Amino acid sequence: MLATHPEMETKARSECHDVAAANNGRIEWKSLGELKYVTAFIQETLRLYPTIAALATRETATDDYLPMASGKSYFVPKRFLEGSEPFTADKALRHGQGNTYYYMPFSAGAKNCIGMRFAMAELQVVVSNLLLKYSFKVTNQADLNPKQDGVSIKPVKLDMMVHRAATSFSTVDSL
């Protein structure tokens, strides 16, 4: 998503630079809470492209009708959800306004992913450190329409160019 939204990449990179500059050129555990826009960008990406796409095992035989059985899971296509398009990281900055079940990359409720916080922290560190050092551009040959493979969403042909960022930190370390 960074490669397809250069203005958002610039905004996220700027935030990373500010946070790193305030922490001796590093993105550390204690500074992850300061990465509000980067976190919002990650959350918006996961909302549109969760690692597990669907838990549904079948489609309806007729439009708009599926008998509801107790204890069963149902998949509702994104076109029926509020704000499915366009991608905007600012949407994730609304602090829980709206229906929280529009964002479920780690499931929801009491049985959600036990590693959710660790995974988010890991994503924040990796994305932030990449932004401090590199910029990303997709090529004309890239196929940006991911395909579902079982329950996972996978890129088809994520063809991109990676360049050293114009203002990279030389002392960046991860956790």
From TrEMBL:
Molecular function as annotated in GO: heme binding; iron ion binding; monooxygenase activity; oxidoreductase activity, acting on paired donors, with incorporation or reduction of molecular oxygen
Protein name: Cytochrome P450
InterPro entries (alphabetical): Cyt_P450, Cyt_P450_CS, Cyt_P450_E_grp-IV, Cyt_P450_sf, Cytochrome_P450_monoxygenase
Protease in keyword set: no
UniProt: heme binding residues: 113
Keywords: Heme, Iron, Metal-binding, Monooxygenase, Oxidoreductase
Matching Pfam families: p450
Family: Belongs to the cytochrome P450 family.
SUPFAM superfamilies, A to Z: Cytochrome P450 (SSF48264)
Cofactor: heme
